[in-house]
Specification:
The complex is a heterodimer of chains A (115) and B (111).
Chain A: E1 5-7, E2 10-13, E3 19-24, E4 31-38, E5 42-50, E6 53-56, E7 65-71, E8 74-79, E9 88-95, E10 105-106, E11 110-114
Parallel strand pairs in A: 2-11
Antiparallel strand pairs in A: 1-3, 3-8, 4-5, 4-9, 5-6, 7-8, 9-10, 9-11
Chain B: E1 4-6, E2 11-14, E3 19-25, E4 33-38, E5 45-50, E6 54-57, E7 60-65, E8 70-75, E9 84-91, E10 99-101, E11 105-110
Classes of the chains: A mainly beta (115), B mainly beta (111).
Chain lengths: 115, 111
């Protein structure tokens, strides 16, 4: 199993540009999460999907952020326009939701720098 | 009260020492908990799950105190390779799995 795959691994962009982060969850998992990690705020849940449907996007910081999951094997997180304060590591994670909470498996993350 | 609270540390201990971290949570309905480990510039990885009163795996023991709403992680005979940040994770109220991470406790094991 290849695990959760994220791309790109690193992204450097100028303020005002659009940024798209991509994620391929583990095959068979029905839940997908987008997290953002900074030194100041730790790991923050931005949005999560269950069976491709967004369940809770209350963690999305503002309208500049949007996420989609068009099918079970792909999700995107878009920031438009990007700002320097968006600089962080963005993690995608997936899990198999069942009766008992199960662990989430993380991708290696995308390190975003907005200059 | 924050959903999940951890002492950020760092905890500096010598090799072979025993060290324990606590994590408090606010959701009294939570049934299961996790400890994740995160190495510098890496993704978090599951260390232990806690579904009842506790769990033990080799040198690592996790315990749950529902009355006081905290979980602990005990590391015995600590190794240099145990140096990492340990994240406490609690599912958020609401049915679907929504994992809330603590900010982590940093452990530094020295020779």
């Amino acid at each position: 199993d290849a695990g959760v795959i994220q791309s790109p691994r690193h992204e450097v962009t100028e303020m005002g540009q659009e940024v798209t982060l991509r994620c391929k969850p583990i095959s068979g998992h029905n839940s997908l999460f987008w997290y953002r990690q900074t030194m100041m705020r730790g790991l923050e849940l931005l949005i999560y999907f269950n069976n491709n449907v967004p369940i809770d996007d209350s963690g999305m910081p503002e309208d500049r952020f949007s996420a989609k999951m068009p099918n079970a094997s792909f999700s995107t997180l878009k920031i438009q326009p990007s700002e320097p304060r968006d600089s962080a590591v963005y993690f995608c994670a997936s899990s198999q939701q069942g009766r008992r909470n199960t662990e989430a498996f993380f991708g290696q993350g995308t390190r975003l720098t907005v200059v | 009260r924050k959903e999940v609270e951890q002492d950020p540390g760092p905890f500096n201990v010598p090799e072979g020492a025993t060290v324990a971290f606590n994590c408090t949570y606010s959701n009294s309905a939570s049934q299961s908990f996790f400890w994740y480990r995160q190495d510098c510039r890496k993704e978090p990885k599951l260390l232990m799950s806690v579904y009842s009163s506790g769990n033990e795996d080799g040198r690592f023991t996790a315990q749950l105190n529902r009355a006081s709403q905290y979980i602990s992680l005990l590391i015995r005979d600590s190794k240099l390779s145990d140096s990492a940040t340990y994240l406490c994770v609690v599912p958020k109220r609401g049915g679907f799995q929504k994992l809330v991470f603590g900010t982590g406790t940093r452990l530094l094991v020295s020779p």
